Amino acid sequence: MTTVDIADGVVTSLGEGESAERGRICVADVVKRFDGPDVLQEVSLDVRPGEMLALLGPSGCGKTTLLRTIAGLERIDGGSIEIDGHRVSGPGRHVAPQDRRIGMVFQDWALFPHLTVGDNIGYGLSRQERRGGRVAEALALVGLAGLADRMPSTLSGGQQQRVALARALAPRPRALLLDEPFSNLDTTLRVQVRTEVHRLLADLGVTTVFVTHDQEEAFVLGDRVAVMNGGVIEQLDRPAAIYERPASRWVAEFVGEANLLRGEAHGDHAETPIGPIRLTTPVTGPVDVLIRPEGLVLQPGGASTVELVEYYGHDHVLLVALPDGSWFRVRAAGAPRFERGQSVEVRPDGSPTVGFPALDPAD
Ligand code: ATP
């Protein structure tokens, strides 16, 4: 039986039997094609109950298609999908979207402008559910109790997003799927609404899969991030692991800024033009060593030159040219301590990093 626990006006649980598997989504070897090549190539993904998982990747890599196959909006051509241990897609089986008990929120979070907040939330509910207090319950979930009679236009942008979320939560879904949920908001509102939604979903513990092409958004919201490229998941891990130990050169360059430095690896370290650098995984031979901009330090004097200074307030980035013509991005906290044209020496900060076999050792 489904219950909603409310203590002092705060919703503490979504109820629904509270099985340990509630909200688990298992995608196994899923293939999807439209007219041409496979858009999803044997994609596997295990979304844990209560986790927020980001699907991150460039345009056209298959993120939305993967989300839509989980929702049941697309039929799959191979593999299987289970929700709460129940097979919803697979050979000879396709459970309709409305029977999957999945809440879906699209880019624009569109509310019906001519309906009240309450009618918006009640739109997809049965008459019995509406009479049973589901609308008030969903509004309480998102912290907007008492606003059922307001028109959407009288609410702030952030409140409207929460109403859209309430509408998705009202049918008590097993999981939530969000497609680029913040892309239509301007920068200031975006950060504010993102934090609000993050708090809410973290408090509720609803399993959530969301699609984004924005690395910051994926890292900020995602407990784990699946980095997709060309219909496959290149890496699935916690944000820090993806940033610090990307599984491939492509992931390294797609996620954050990457300096790739040619060197010669000797097991646990590589010799490079700026000195020896420790490697997290032993390699031998020509390598391209990944150094994030904050993994480099500068000292005054030396054969390198500061070419550009970019100040961001909380930190700054310097573009530094080495004598061999290569250049690095170097990030440090606070205000810049070097000026354009100044001579500097670039050094690694000593932390271990990853090395990828050099693409063309003869380069
Ligand atoms: P974006 O960030 O631009 O939305 P995405 O990673 O979400 O990209 P998808 O929308 O999943 O990518 O599209 C993946 C590929 O599948 C694209 O090449 C797209 O053109 C194709 N595709 C998606 N839906 C259909 C469809 N209904 N019919 C034909 N091709 C489609």
Q: Give the quaternary arrangement of the chains.
A: single chain
Hetero ligands: adenosine-5'-triphosphate
Q: SS-based structural class?
A: alpha+beta
Q: List low-pLDDT spans.
A: 1-18
Main β-sheet description: 6 strands, mixed
Morphology = globular
Helical content band:
10-25%
Note the beta-strand portion. Answer: 35-45%
Structure summary, number of beta strands = 20
Chain-averaged pLDDT: 89
Number of helices: 9
Order of strands, main sheet, comes to 9-10-11-5-12-13
Radius of gyration: 24 Å
Could you give the order of the helices and strands? Answer: EEEEEHEEEEHHHHEHEHEEHHEEEEEEE
> How far apart are the termini?
65 Å
Structural topology:
Elements: E1 5-7, E2 10-13, E3 25-33, E4 38-47, E5 52-56, H1 63-71, E6 78-83, E7 86-90, E8 93-94, E9 102-105, H2 117-122, H3 127-131, H4 134-141, H5 157-169, E10 175-179, H6 187-204, E11 207-212, H7 215-221, E12 224-229, E13 232-237, H8 239-244, H9 249-254, E14 259-272, E15 275-291, E16 296-311, E17 315-321, E18 327-333, E19 343-348, E20 355-357
Parallel strand pairs: 5-11, 5-12, 9-10, 10-11
Antiparallel strand pairs: 1-2, 3-4, 3-6, 6-7, 7-8, 12-13, 14-15, 15-20, 16-17, 16-19, 17-18
The structure holds adenosine-5'-triphosphate.
